[in-house]
Design brief:
Layout lengths: L1 H14 L4 E2 L4 E2 L2 E5 L2 E5 L3 H11 L4 H7 L5 H12 L5 H13 L5 H10 L9 H12 L8 H14 L23 E3 L1 H17 L2 H16 L10 E3 L5 E3 L3 E2 H19 L4 H12 L9 E2 L4 E2 L2 E3 L6 H12 L8 H4 L4 E3 L1 E2 L1 H10 L2 H5 L7 H8 L15
Antiparallel strand pairs: 1-2, 3-4, 3-13, 5-6, 6-7, 8-11, 9-10, 11-12
Length: 392
């Protein structure tokens, strides 16, 4: 697995320059394969903020090179300016998160904008509410706005379903579409686990830690036999509603970074699930190969069913709405999960760098080589990874 992780990091660092628009100071929405070539499409402030979060852990010259000679601070400054004019909570929260990690001098402006959007009360999805909490609590165990963070954490706790240990797609005080209001997606589990783990480190609130632990246990219990992180869940029963697509970003970074945040907060170890997750990415049985494409220099986005108009997800959502135990039969036969989505997005590369840092790799026995572990125990710097020893 150590070789896979290094391959992922190398691909992320090589792919990000191809996804950046220097004149806009923004990353693209995606790279997509068209007529055998990779085309850069659109722009995304959200993805730019996540890319900056990943680059914050890299050497300054590496980050500046990826950004066409611009510094992460300059790019972040542009995001902070944009944040003053948007009603997109996700964009504002991720911008504040990046600004705090980068210690940007104008981070306060992003904080003021976040407060004005009232994430503890407004009609925002769970993922964006969780991002807001992470943005307020992530940096060095310090809370930027204790009152706001407490209110947001309270909203996530009020949304948590203790019987199933899941978070809904829409938090307490927000209403989703009726036919799928019971449906939670994988991101609705990952980001609250991460945010509540950050909040626990800052406040030592045991209630949020128990929710994060319980959700992580449930998430790992539902992991597929080959390491897949399934897509849709029923918050009423805690069962999987629809397994596909399986997204590469869930496998290589989103699940690992949430589980790492929990481990950093309280020592709960889900390394086995992380290793299984990466093994699937390296060799997905559904396609008989890997989504890691070194020739194209990208990691393809997902393995999905061969289906029109997301029909299986819609059908299973309706069926389980009628009765929690009801499933539409024959979908695995009719719509085989063997289609690859030939695109790659900057946030996927950003989360790789954020989750799989050089230090993290060095200190995970299942990801580091025996030689590197021996170097670590000897109390010297590893020349291969460049990470200092952790107290044993």
């Amino acid at each position: 697995m150590r070789d896979v992780v290094h391959q992922l990091r190398a691909l992320a660092l090589a792919a990000l320059p191809r996804m950046y628009w220097p004149e806009e100071r923004l990353f693209a929405f995606r790279l997509r394969r068209k007529n055998g070539a990779m085309a850069r499409e659109g722009i995304s402030p959200r993805y730019t903020a996540i890319a900056l979060l990943g680059l914050a852990g890299e050497r300054e010259e590496t980050a500046t090179g990826i950004l066409g000679g611009q510094s992460p601070g300059e790019v972040c400054g542009g995001l902070i300016q944009r944040a003053q004019e948007t009603d997109d909570l996700g964009e504002v929260a991720l911008t504040l998160w990046a600004a705090r990690v980068l210690q940007h001098p104008r981070a306060e402006a992003a904080l003021v904008r976040l407060r004005s959007m009232r994430p503890a009360e407004g009609r925002y999805p769970t993922v964006e509410v969780a991002w807001a909490l992470s943005a307020l609590t992530v940096q060095n165990g310090e809370v930027t706005d204790a009152e706001e963070a407490k209110a947001i954490a309270g909203r996530l706790l009020a949304s948590f379903q203790p019987e199933t240990a899941l978070f809904p797609h829409w938090p307490a005080g927000a209403r989703g579409l009726s036919f799928r209001s019971h449906v939670s997606c994988f991101a609705d589990l990952v980001y609250p686990i991460q945010a509540l783990s950050h909040y626990y480190r800052a406040t030592r609130c045991s209630e949020v830690l128990e929710a994060a632990r319980a959700c992580a246990r449930r998430m790992c219990d539902m992991q597929g036999p080959d390491g897949q992180w399934w897509w849709h869940y029923d918050v009423r029963t805690g069962r999987v509603i629809e397994r596909y697509p399986v997204y590469s970003v869930h496998q290589h970074s989103m699940a690992p970074m949430a589980l790492f945040a929990l481990e950093d907060a309280c020592g709960t170890d889900h390394t086995d699930a992380t290793v299984k997750s990466l093994k699937w990415l390296a060799s997905a049985p559904e396609i008989g190969g890997s989504l890691i494409d070194t020739h194209a220099g990208v990691i393809w986005r997902k393995v999905a069913r061969r289906e029109p108009f997301k029909i299986t997800r819609r059908a299973q959502a309706v069926a389980t709405r009628l009765h929690p135990a009801l499933r539409v039969p024959g979908l695995d036969w009719a719509f085989r999960p063997a289609a690859v989505d030939y695109e790659c997005r900057p946030y996927e590369m950003g989360w790789i760098l954020y989750a799989l840092t050089r230090e993290r790799i060095c200190h995970m026995p299942s990801l580091a080589t025996q030689e590197e572990l021996d170097v670590q125990r000897a109390g010297v710097r590893s020349p291969g990874l460049g990470c200092a020893p952790r107290p044993m």
